[in-house]
Specification:
Length: about 280
C-alpha cells in the first residue's frame, strides 16, 4: 500500500519514481506556474511533470530554484513535442528543455504522442540520451498497445513509463495489463477527467463513507490500481487536498464500484487520430 507522498515505484531500470506528483498542463508560464510548483514542493511533492508544448518549463525551473530543494530530491519529467520528432531534432529539443528548466538532467523524458512514422527515430534519440547518462529514465505518452509492440520490436530499450489519459471513465484495462506484463509503469494524465468526474454520484457516495472528496477517492483508486498519478492544480489548498490520500484505503467492493464506471470515454485526443504538430 502506498503510504506517503514520498513513496515510489521502481521502474524496470531500477530508478525510483514517486507514485504521486504535480502536473502543470495548462498552467500559465510565469507566476502561476511558479506558485503552483513551489506550493507542491512545500507540501512534500517530489515529482513535477511538464512538457515542451506546455510552454512553462522556465517557470517550473524557476520554482525549483526558488524552493531551494536539493535537485536529487526531485523527480522532473518533460516531453518531446510532435513537431520535434525525429532523431536529431529530438536531441536538440532535449537540450532546449534542459536549458529552459535550468537543470543538468531530467529524471524522465517522454515522447508526447506517437504520431505516424517518426516515433522509432525519436525513441532512438531517447535511447542515446539514456545511454549517455543525460536522463535517468525514458518513456512514452499516449501509446496504444500496437505502438508499444512496434517500438519494442525496433529498439534496444523498452519504455520505462507510458503516460496516458486514465480515469474511471477510461480505465484502459487491456493497455494496463499489457504494460504490467512488460514491466512498463502506467501513469495517468487527466486523472479527474478535467474535473468532469467530481460530480459522479457513485464516487461522491464512496467519498462520504471515507470522509473524502471525489477527487481524493479517484486519486486513491489510481494508486490502488498501481498507476502513477499527476493531478494538476494551481490552488495551494487543492494541491494539499489532492495529496491527502494516504490515510485511507478503498475496499475491494468500492474499487470494483469505481471500475464499473468505465465507458472508454476520452476527454483528450485518441492517439490514433491525434495529428497536431506532425508535419
Amino acid at each position: 500500500m502506498v503510504k506517503s507522498l514520498q513513496d515510489t515505484t521502481t521502474l524496470h531500470n531500477g530508478v525510483k519514481m514517486p507514485w504521486f506528483g504535480l502536473g502543470v498542463f495548462k498552467v500559465k508560464e510565469g507566476q502561476e506556474v511558479i506558485d503552483s510548483v513551489k506550493a507542491a514542493i512545500k507540501h512534500g511533492y517530489k515529482s513535477i511533470d511538464t512538457a515542451a508544448i506546455y510552454q512553462n518549463e522556465e517557470g517550473v525551473g524557476q520554482a525549483i530554484k526558488e524552493s531551494g530543494i536539493v535537485r536529487e530530491d526531485l523527480f522532473v519529467t518533460s516531453k518531446v513535442w510532435n513537431a520535434d520528432q525525429g532523431y536529431e531534432s529530438t536531441l536538440r529539443a532535449y537540450e532546449t528543455s534542459l536549458h529552459k528548466l535550468g537543470l543538468e538532467y531530467l529524471d524522465l523524458y517522454l515522447i508526447h504522442w506517437p504520431g505516424k512514422d517518426k516515433y522509432i527515430d525519436t525513441w532512438h534519440a531517447l535511447e542515446k540520451l539514456y545511454k549517455d547518462g543525460r536522463v535517468r529514465a525514458i518513456g512514452v505518452s499516449n501509446f496504444h498497445i500496437h505502438h508499444l509492440e512496434n517500438l519494442m520490436k525496433n529498439s534496444e530499450i523498452k519504455p520505462m513509463v507510458n503516460q496516458v489519459e486514465y480515469h474511471p471513465h477510461l480505465a484502459q484495462r487491456e493497455l494496463h495489463a499489457f504494460c504490467k506484463e512488460n514491466g512498463i509503469q502506467l501513469e495517468a494524465w487527466s486523472p479527474l477527467k478535467q474535473g468532469q468526474l467530481l460530480s459522479e454520484p457513485t464516487i461522491i457516495e464512496i467519498g462520504e463513507k471515507y470522509n473524502k472528496s471525489a477527487a481524493q477517492v479517484i486519486l486513491r483508486w489510481d494508486l490502488q490500481n498501481e498507476v502513477v498519478t499527476i493531478p494538476k492544480s494551481i490552488k495551494e489548498n487543492r494541491i494539499q487536498q489532492n495529496a491527502d490520500i494516504f490515510d485511507f484505503e478503498l475496499s475491494h467492493e468500492d474499487m470494483e464500484g469505481i471500475n464499473s464506471l468505465n465507458k472508454d470515454e476520452r476527454v483528450g485526443s485518441n492517439p490514433d487520430v491525434m495529428s497536431a504538430g506532425f508535419e
